[in-house]
Inverse folding.
């Protein structure tokens, strides 16, 4: 390999973008990151809507059932789920430092750190999933005459939660991790 030729090509003007082009490329990358953040916020509405639907359905079943003591256990479980979801939203969307004024490398490094945090949250989610099955099983055993609607609601909630989190991990978080690591590697 001719290292002198390689060095000449590396230092040529074609390999160094002009300051205007570099500014446009940086601006485009920042716009892409902002767009991803907006999409992420909109996608967060899906679990919120699902929890609202499940809570309304559970409340309707309790109010229609007539026996208040039996249904309140399910609503208490829904309250615990709401607390967990609100805690996740609070940690995910609280005042994050703006990347608009930060240098490009720092913005990418922060985004990669946030991605790592979200992937750790996915692993914690899978470790905590069995914890929810015990109270669910106990509630269903207590209500042996539970209607098919209640069982279908519980199954739909579990399947939707597991499916959503798995899809988000494999289709959003992992590819984003690879892209950010590649960008940081190219930047250095």
């Amino acid at each position: 390999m001719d290292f002198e030729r390689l060095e000449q090509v590396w230092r040529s003007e074609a390999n160094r973008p002009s300051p205007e082009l570099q500014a446009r490329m940086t601006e485009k990358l920042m716009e892409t990151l902002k767009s991803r953040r907006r999409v992420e916020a909109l996608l967060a509405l899906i679990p919120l809507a699902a929890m609202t639907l499940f809570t309304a359905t559970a409340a309707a079943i309790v109010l229609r059932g007539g026996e208040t003591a039996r249904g309140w256990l399910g609503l208490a479980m829904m309250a615990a789920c709401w607390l967990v979801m609100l805690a996740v939203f609070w940690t995910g969307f609280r005042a994050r430092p703006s990347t608009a004024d930060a240098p490009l490398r720092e913005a990418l490094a922060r985004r990669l750190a946030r991605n790592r945090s979200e992937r750790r949250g996915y692993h914690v989610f899978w470790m905590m999933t069995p914890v929810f099955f015990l109270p669910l099983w106990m509630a269903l055993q207590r209500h042996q005459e539970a209607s098919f609607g209640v069982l279908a609601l519980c199954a739909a909630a579990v399947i939707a939660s597991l499916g959503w989190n798995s899809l988000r991990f494999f289709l959003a978080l992992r590819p984003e991790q690879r892209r950010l690591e590649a960008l940081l590697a190219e930047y250095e």
Observations:
- The chain is about 85% helix and 0% strand.
